[in-house]
Amino acid sequence: MTGLYFDFNATTPLSPKSKIAIKQRLEQFANPSGKYRLSQSLHTLIHDTKESIAQLMGGSAERIIFTSGGTEGNNLALHSVFSQLSVNQLSRYHAICSAIEHSSILEPLRWYQKQGLKLTIIDPGKTGRVDQDALCRAITPQTCLIALMVINNETGVIQPYEALASQLKGKGIHLHLDAIQAVGKWPMYCPDDIPLTVTFSGHKFYAPKGIGGLYYSSQVKICPLLHGGGQEQGLRSGTENTLGIAGLAAAAEEACEELIQRLYHCQEMRKYIINQLDISTIKYHLNGETNPEYQAPWTLNISFPGVRAEALANRLDLCHGISVSLGSACSNNSQTPQRSHVLLAMQSPHAYIDSALRISFGHVTERQEIDVLVNALKQEIQNLLAIAGE
Ligand code: PLP
User: Which Pfam families has this protein been placed in (predicted)?
Assistant: First the structure.
């Protein structure tokens, strides 16, 4: 089934080059740990892919560990900080994170909190941007970790990660950056002068699902979550996902070459959507930053007052073949629909939260697709308002 896809923050389609790279490796089934020639080219593939990822992240290739994706990378980073402490030591330590982190940060931190860790969760401002001074004011002599995402998956708001990294210089506090919505789409730089970990995930930038990783600065000691055959210098055991890595390599090279053009295209598309919405006279409210400097250009978190987002998303899907998300796709796994923890933390009124859609797109999105989306939105919002008697 084909249709129009506006949920690029949940996952992206494979890029044509990524598909080709995977196809070319389909017959190379050898285990990269083998000592024979069949394995050698896979060994080289793994090494070269780390070089490409390092270029995207502005870090060093030797300090990249491949994982099964972003969730594992985030868990590995937190585990590396806390597993070095014994359970009774945990209660002597303190961590800080923002309230808008992804569940793969919030859930492990809450788990450590149950084991005794002191945890401070900082709300963002109404714009969805966390104030780095508020994070720093929460530091106590016991603070060992601050976790902040680089770009929020629901709103696309860019967080002050660079300013925070400079403020933490010399403090010996581990900074973990969940850069899963940023790497491959946004210019990144990983400084080496603080204890730093940064995560990425291939399926957010046109590589396959099931491959991602963790970058760590030279001041960090990684404690493995998975023990076994000693792959990834013993830091992440398990036979490498060579097909995923082949796809990741191609996607990373393309992202490196085209990053700025892609950003520019998304900026143009975002302006175009807003312009078309204005022309259509649909009533809407944009959630998040109004300063474009702090807003990822490929995301709109948008409320249509008086309309239930779930009903609107269903009608867009069933009647027009258009896929949009209600909020974070990752939280859609919960049995009962829950209000977005991100919009709640931003103190958005419930009427805005209940009518909010996340429209996310990419450099492959074209104006004609946006025209179809805006027309469908207009039609279905009118239908739903008529049903509601408004
Ligand atoms: N962190 C953020 C900000 C995300 O958006 C996601 C996925 O949506 C994840 C972590 C989890 O990544 P993965 O799907 O690769 O496990």
Answer: Aminotran_5
Rounded CA separation 31/177 (Å): 32
How many angstroms separate the alpha carbon of residue 180 from the centre of ligand 1? 6
Catalytic residues: 330
Report the nearest atom of ligand 1 relative to the CA of 153: 5
pLDDT in tens, 15-52: 999 999 999 999 999 999 999 999 999 999 999 999 99
What is the CA(205)–ligand 1 centre distance, in A?
12
For the segment 240-284, what is each residue's pLDDT rounded down to a tens digit? 999 999 999 999 999 999 999 999 999 999 999 999 999 999 999
Q: 16-253 belongs to which CATH class?
A: alpha beta
DSSP letters spanning 144-178: EEEEEESB-TTT-BBP-HHHHHHHTTTS--EEEEE
Q: Could you tell me which CATH class the domain 4-10+259-388 is placed in? A: alpha beta
All structural domains of the chain with their residue ranges: 4-10+259-388, 16-253
Choosing from 75, 104, 241 the residue with most ligand 1 atoms within 8 A of its CB, the one to mutate for a pocket test is: 104
* Cα 178 to middle of ligand 1, angstroms: 8
| Alpha-carbon dihedral 236, 238, 239, 243, rounded to 10 degrees | -70
Q: Which atom of ligand 1 is nearest to the CA of 101?
A: 3
Report the relative pairing of strands 196-201 and 212-216 from DSSP bridges. Answer: antiparallel
- Integer Cα distance of 59 and 168 in angstroms: 18
pLDDT at residue 334 greater than cutoff 80: no
Report how far residue 57's alpha carbon sits from residue 190's, in angstroms, rounded to the nearest whole number: 6
For atom 13 of ligand 1, which residue has the closest CA?
70
pLDDT in tens, 156-182: 999 999 999 999 999 999 999 999 999
Mean pLDDT calculated for residue range 343-354: 95
Which tokens hold the place of 183? 């790497």
pTM: 0.96
Cα of 3 from ligand 1 centre, angstroms: 24
